[in-house]
Amino acid sequence: QTLNFFMNGIGRSVWQWASLVLATLTVGVAFFIVSVSSALATDEFWTVEYWNLDEESGDAPAFPTGVADITDEEAEVNFNWGEDAPVEGINADDFATRWTRTVSFADGPYIFSARSDDGVRVYLAAELIIDEWYDKGGGETFTYLATPGEGDHEVKVEHYENGGGALIEVSYGAFPSGSGTEEDPYAPTVCEHLQQ
Questions:
Q1: pLDDT per residue as tens digits for the range 123-138
Q2: How far is CA 97 from its chain centroid?
Q3: From its phi and psi, is residue 94 left (phi > 0), alpha (psi between -120 and 50) or beta?
Q4: What distance in Å separates the CA atoms of residue 112 and residue 104, rounded to the nearest whole number?
């Protein structure tokens, strides 16, 4: 009986140890899967960088070249900050922002649309396609018809705010064949499901 009790005790200890190891491995594998999934999911977001600018930067400032004051990820470029700061740690006035992401385009033309207060630039595969880099209100929408070609291309948006209200809206979408109007063959209003 003493031997059986001793052996049973060893058996229980071995089983408990094996269960603990199995549980640890399971948690480790689950954590690895979640981490990989999260890393892959970041491709769906814009990488955004914010810089504080000097008050003397004025109209049409040079875009910052140093390390951003704040870096984050955002699902879209669609903000109306009014007279508030865009994020904590950034000025309500005198700031610059840059969004970048890689987009997988199908073959065919795409319409790009931008509205901003103040300046905005939009780049497609390093080509400047919308250049409205000056102080203005957000009352006008600027568009550009591009054919990026099938495959992955980087889209980059730059924005600055000098004073007063601040907003930025950028979107893009496939341009339907045969759409538009006689007055404006490339009217952006005909493009449904614009992506931001």
A1: 999 999 999 999 999 8
A2: 12
A3: left
A4: 15
| pLDDT, tens digit, 9 for 90 and up, residues 47-73 | 999 999 998 777 899 999 999 999 999
Which residue is associated with the tokens 């614009």? 194
Residues with pLDDT less than 70, the chain = 1-43, 177-196
- Token duo for residue 15: 């089983």
Closest CA to 79 of 90, 87, 70, 89: 87
CA distances in angstroms from 41 to 23, 35, 47, 170, 187, listed in the order given: 27, 10, 12, 21, 33
